């Protein structure tokens, strides 16, 4: 028996940033050579456009500098290959940024330390659907939209529905959700088990396939939302639901955001269970109309989009009518509900194109080089409407264009702010106020995007120094050399840290 | 800047048991003196009955030996007092077992290392209900039944409904659930934020009050299910739901367990959303009848108990009828539904008395010193009926009495086995087979009781050596001296460990 190697001398339970050394990294060259030798030439890229695309995205709130590029992008095809890569980067102390869909918005995959990028996108097989158990096992590169299409044939659905292009690995990383979260839960509620690779290359399977479990530490809970800083996700077993037999969609416009809020509170009090409730502000509806991406023209007013699902037409009709009645007592202007599946898709379509329509509007009507800052917060439900109204008014006062969309079932809203390059500092202040407003309302600086690179400072304001020091303790326990997605979520480098 | 104190020399991501030293503990005497001096005489007990009650329970599957008693039981009344206790036990390296309701079943609070017990039961205040936000903040000593009563006035409900007597702290610790979990989720899905005290006395607040969050590591997810080995829970903010306006309860008997299973699959496929679905086997129904604890007499057949809840009588009536139709096509014998709230309570009553009725039956009809072994597993839903039927048949073959209850919505079932002291070894084999059966079906050795002392060996079979080594890494990172609830969930002492 040897002595414990990782009990700190002090025996404390947390690690403060002052206790950490400045991380030292090795030269990636040898690691890259060894990995290429093992995996072959067809699983690596050194092409500039690939390196660029694996560092940044147009729609990200924060951007990589020109030096912030990985030295290579690897495309492993099995968990064992990922393990080989991580064993090698561990040996040579090379930083690794894991990605899948690269749709995250807060600079979550900027290669701040260069190193290498591991893109899991080729691991895109659906491995097993267990219809009767209501679960599916997939590789982490599977996109949620592909999964959704695939599951239609089984009459099943997977709850989380984030932005287009997102894939399971990244969805686990950011603990994402989407419009359906209030009904079906976020990633936290929809993962049964994970296969992940740790910083030293160890492969971990967190769970077997029971729908619930109290057996041992909840490692799913730890990895979900850790943004690639604790492990690289390679497979996931996901909870499924039976697809509602009958559905409908309604669209309701209100004179004021607060009226829409009162209607939502009314649905909840009444016990109506909707499959989604989305709020789009008047500006968002204007952008949708201008975009030409939908065939219907909408009222340019605060608008609720409601999705209903259930076992029978009687039950859906009851709910559609009950919701209408509640809307009417809260000054609704128009209550449009679909009379066919095509109409359902058409109405819901306005929600789906929100970010694209916003960007499109900006390019065509403001500046062809328009920038976008898309960010989210979540607050206790009763604070939602005032919080988003204040953000909206601040934008208007400054003459900055931007749309707002809210997942009103769980108090989460998104601001999609359009600006010219030179206006960035002004927008940063609006975002800062949006965060402060959320924190003052006992909320969080991110409901579903994650902290990434851009919100570290706000996370410091959200949780106590000790809570951050506990997160640091966990990070250093699992990744002592600070190799996995460095500089995200919170700082581990005292040289970088500003209080 | 100092050097990192807790990065292991090897830089690995896991800790195997061979790497750990045999833990060394200090004499509790000085720690107890200091704590008594700080907290006062009225917050400590040395009375034998208190020490006994804080070591074991009649209904536990595993029992404490006579030496396994804490040296003192403390009853702190604030988080700061808990922090003072833990700072002191940390200073003197004294083991601490935290408890609240002491209703756990797998030896989860046996004081294997003596030390002290911290009973959070006096921290039983409901601190704030936020009606519009659908959340409540409570101290960890609040019982779920008291909370349920309290929330009725607000027309709200908290989902998890484990055994009578359970309190929030222990419910967090075991990631418990209950009959309503398939509808409202387990503890994992119902905790918004926690206040906990770490092994060194550090107070951590995990989150503010947003209903969802992607901000930083999901510490809720880590602490829930960690069975007091990572932290002592002192406060929790919990998700609430609006209580259904209209409810009903039905009771259906079937000739065979498999028929009941087919009916449940039918409900799921139809998209009926029930508030609870419970299976009671024929033996359980016999014990309920004999117990005299309910006024109705039931068919002594496999029985489903169904709870319905929704916004209107029309919707509930529709669901009750739709469920009846599905039951009929699956050979149901009798379909009884309540016509009043009194009848609802009466019918559901048979479920509520399950464990007590079983013990009562054993005492009156088998042996006045009857023992009970109440344990649970969870399997993918489609494996549930065969799995529990095989356990049932094994009991019958050995002539051992026992009832079975299943939370059929999520593949979780409980066996409550009655035996005379001298039959313990025989029962242990039945339990072992029940575990093996669950694992062979890709399930878990505990769906909601936790691993405690009694199921460590089975957890070793459920997860890989590396997965256990990752749990050990986390444990030693947060509790380097192995003070919090030692010897539970998995072994940290290489001297104790048997492979």
TrEMBL record, chains A, B:
Gene3D superfamilies hit by this protein: 3.30.465.10, 3.30.70.2740, Vanillyl-alcohol Oxidase, Chain A, domain 4 (1.10.45.10)
Record's compositionally biased regions (Polar residues): 1-15
Pfam families referenced in this protein's UniProt entry, alphabetically: FAD-oxidase_C, FAD_binding_4
Localization (cell): Mitochondrion
Keyword Nucleotide-binding: no
Disordered, as annotated region: 1-20
Cofactor section: FAD
Protein family: Belongs to the FAD-binding oxidoreductase/transferase type 4 family.
Catalysed reactions listed for this entry: (R)-lactate + 2 Fe(III)-[cytochrome c] = 2 Fe(II)-[cytochrome c] + pyruvate + 2 H(+)
Species: Dekkera bruxellensis
Molecular function (Gene Ontology), one example: D-lactate dehydrogenase (NAD+) activity
UniProt key word Mitochondrion: yes
InterPro entries attached to this UniProt entry: FAD-bd_oxidored_4_C, FAD-bd_PCMH, FAD-bd_PCMH-like_sf, FAD-bd_PCMH_sub2, FAD-linked_Oxase-like_C, Oxid_FAD_bind_N, Vanillyl_alc_oxidase_C-sub2
GO BP field: lactate catabolic process
One GO cellular component term: mitochondrion
PANTHER family: D-LACTATE DEHYDROGENASE, D-LACTATE DEHYDROGENASE, MITOCHONDRIAL-RELATED
Gene: DLD1
EC number: 1.1.2.4
Keywords from the named record: FAD, Flavoprotein, Mitochondrion, Oxidoreductase, Transit peptide
Uppermost EC category: oxidoreductase
Name used for this protein in its record: D-lactate dehydrogenase (cytochrome)
